[in-house]
Design a protein that fits this description.
Layout (H helix, E strand, L loop, with lengths): L1 H12 L15 H100 L32 H4 L1 H17 L2 H19 E2 L2 E2 L1 H6 L1 H16 L1 H8 L9 H11 L4 H11 L7 H13 L10 H8 L3 H5 L14 H13 L12 H4 L9 H10 L8 H5 L5 H6 L9 H7 L3 H14 L4 E8 L2 E9 L5 E4 L8 E3 L6 E3 L1 H4 L11 H15 L3 H14 L4 H11 L9 H14 L5 H14 L5 H18 L5 H17 L3 H14 L4 H17 L4 H19 L6 H20 L3 H20 L6
Helix pairs in contact: 1-2, 4-9, 5-7, 5-8, 7-22, 10-12, 10-22, 11-12, 12-14, 22-23, 22-24, 23-24, 25-26, 26-28, 27-28, 28-29, 28-30, 29-30, 29-31, 30-32, 31-32, 32-33
Length: 760
Amino acid sequence: MAKLSVKRQVRKTTPSTTGKKPARPSGGSSGWVVTLLLIALGGGGYFGYDYWQQQKEAERQAAEAARLARLAEEKRKAEELARLAAEKAERERLAEEERLRREAEEAERRRREAEEAERLRKLKESQQGDTPEPEPEPDETETEPEPGPSAYDDAPSLHGADATNLSGKKAFNQMIDQLLEKRDFGAFERSMSTKIKEALVEYTSGDRLNYSKYKNNQNLVHTVELCLMIRMAGGKAVTELANQQGNGTDTRGVDFLRWALQDKSRPLHHFMQNFAYQEGRPENMEHSLNLFYTIWAATEAKERVKYLNLNIAGALMNPGICSARGNYRDSSAAILSVPEVCAYLRKMDSRRKLVTDIKKLGVSQLIHVVNVRLPQSEFDWAAENTNYKQSNWSAAYNSITYLMERAANGKDPYKKYSFEEIRKEGGICMDQGYFSCNTGKCRGVPAVYVVGDGDRGPHAWMVYLTDNVTWVQTNSYGYNSGHFSNPCSGRQQHESVLLTRTAKTTDAKLEPAADSMVLADYLVRIGCTAEAHGAAKFATTQFPNETATWMHYIHVLTHDEEKIPDVKVWRKIHSDLSRLSKKNYELMELAADVQEKYILSGQNSAMKQAVMRRTMNQFNRRGGDERADLVLSAIDRQAEVMLESDNLNGVMGLYRKQFKKYTDRGDIFAQLLRQCMGHLEAKDAPARIWNNLAKEVDRLYDRKIKSDGGDFFKLKKEVEIHKMIADVWEKAGNTKKAERIREEEEERLSKSKEQYKGDD
């Protein structure tokens, strides 16, 4: 077949110059030679074609294998993402349930307070009139006695010489003994509230507090603290605590309260101080009080004063921390409760097995130790395998080898997510931060897990206490957006709250602020508005650079919605906060919040926009890139003001200017774009505006943001930004371009990930 085909081809392609048939070759050996040569050439072509076909088939099979491997990898990633999404959804669901529960409890508490106030009002009216008092409806949830003459109405005075001399103190202790015997805490608080009001004349003048005189009257200070605790927890809850039994005695709860109220170390005093200054929520008071009792009961009597700060820190843990399981994956392992963590730390300290001397640490430091959620085995492993000095605990972070395959391709080499596995396998920043923070807590080192976003994407690092005063950050790599969750309040706070602590802001130095905050919290609840404002203001004048004192002052001023101060007061507060924000950037945002809610309220849009522009310029001058989160907040506020008058063009102009300014900061650029998109979606902006936005940000991306992709983490941030831009194009109606951008960026990311795939 090869021979015939070759001959035909030769005949067909042989040129002819005469138009006649070519002459038949004459005999001789040359004809056979030509024939054999053609046969050889034909066979060689056949076999070359076959080899080419085999090569193509091999390439096709290799490509198919690569495609199947890619599909398998994509499926695995999709399953991993689905798992992570499910876990996140579950965490969010639990958090939402907790929030709803708290809101329901708070609503119920407010309802009961309103009913009680209404009942007291009616009782007062009936006593003043001639008509008999109507029979109150039975309340099955309340066991306190009905208001009326109380055994505490004739209690010793809380002011004057009789309140501070020895006989006055003796009478006060006798009254506490009577209270613990009768356990009628509601009646006690109602009677004492009247006596506290009478005593205020001696310690306040208008809106000023004479703190030095107030703190010397320990009877009054203790009474205020006890009454506030009863108000927050509820008389019934305190009575139930007093009735607690244990260790073969029926007076266990009373013993705890007697110790808290009468021990020379003043346990209730320190507990209430720290509850106030660490932003404890009123609805959590019952939870914290019961936790304090549980920790106290598990502590030997001779050690209760020695470890008072540690035990109070444990009592301040919010319910969310107490119910969490942490990140340890073995569901069969029992996670130590907060009281058990405190017991472990006491035991290890007594054996001198901790890195720190926890007896010398303050409550504000120890709350970042006892919030660890791990099984006993992890505590024991840390005790045996982490021997870094407190001043160099950053070595724990650096001891974990960075696992690039985990960062790029989501490799998860852990079964239990134990300390031992993390050290053996390595990990990414979140694993390094988890390991260093939690091993530190297990060894008594106050440590905080901090997260933030930057030009190279999200990052996790650690802030820890190097001695008894100084907090430092480690491995932040220049990031300044670090935030953490306050273990007491659950509020998100910037890491600067810790990093700016000095010897002048220790717990002992801040006691006057805490005392005045406790006093203000109680006074505002019993209607002494002016005196409450004065007590809260005292804290801000004594500690003007502390965010907590200003937040508390504003909270007290707005406690009664019908008695909110006029705009002059708020302008003075705003002026003070703006001036003080040169040293404390946190106060800038607080000043902006005061301005928006209490100064600009009711002003026209033009006035609001002008003021907001000045505020944003101030943020840029004072905070700048050091606190980009505050700048972003100011931009967001200004955009919201513009949208009040449907000024979409103004919003676009605002963000266009900011986009150009922050092209060198991918994290800020991404958040700005997210903000802008949110505002346009809220106003259902037309396709024309979306199209203008898409053109603007896409052009900036191509010119200023897109790189050669050499840095994997920067590439991930670029891909994130460009996919957001694709969403903008889709909003503008250009679906094809949006899909093309997504495909291109996914391909860029996929190619970058290939270099980090392991052999397995």
